[in-house]
Write a structure and sequence with these properties.
Low-confidence stretches of chain B: none
Low-confidence stretches of chain A: none
Radius of gyration of chain A: 14 Å
Strand content of chain B: over 45%
Order of helices and strands of chain A: EEEEEEEEEEE
Structural class of chain A: mainly beta
Distance between the termini of chain B: 35 Å
Shape of chain B: globular
Distance between the termini of chain A: 40 Å
Oligomer: heterodimer
Number of strands of chain B: 11
Number of strands of chain A: 11
Structural class of chain B: mainly beta
Helix content of chain B: under 10%
Helix content of chain A: under 10%
Largest sheet of chain B: 7 strands, mixed
Largest sheet of chain A: 6 strands, mixed
Radius of gyration of chain B: 14 Å
Chain lengths: 112, 116
Amino acid sequence: ILNVEQSPQSLHVQEGDSTNFTCSFPSSNFYALHWYRWETAKSPEALFVMTLNGDEKKKGRISATLNTKEGYSYLYIKGSQPEDSATYLCALRTSGTYKYIFGTGTRLKVLA
Amino acid sequence: DGGITQSPKYLFRKEGQNVTLSCEQNLNHDAMYWYRQDPGQGLRLIYYSQIVNDFQKGDIAEGYSVSREKKESFPLTVTSAQKNPTAFYLCASSIGPGTSGRNEQFFGPGTRLTVL
């Protein structure tokens, strides 16, 4: 079973701080990487779908980059707000399969 | 409203009983998935289906069974053979294969199963 790792496991930041976390994955047979945000008592929601090496995606204050050759993706949040508090999950799909392997997530708490 | 529904939200069962978790979607998606979450672990894939009347085992299929008789429905049965069934179960769907990699998943609200 492939291993997708996320770090840090959790972090607390002050409102207005910028932060970033990492998703690491095996670089061989890469097909796609997804980022999801999972707020408490809600369902996970897709943030980004990334498929090409060097991809950069942005949605408001949140952005993500992808390096498939070295096997990592970064998620950045600029000027964190309390409503950004959630668990952020990444999920890897490799070529030749329809399965997704999820990381354990990074739990973000933004303090007002 | 389009979306995925799972019922019930909370489910309690006695040890040794089979239990079926419901998952329905009206997004016209071909692909559906069942995941399990345990404390401190990521979502682990139990079963997935890319098309009606076809499904494949995920990474932790032992003790579970599924059916995909209709496009909208993908029920999961937790059998008495599953050694540690107490967990949070999430169902998801996506458009399906052949969409150039853009297969973001849409998730239901989940069912928390407790086996007493």
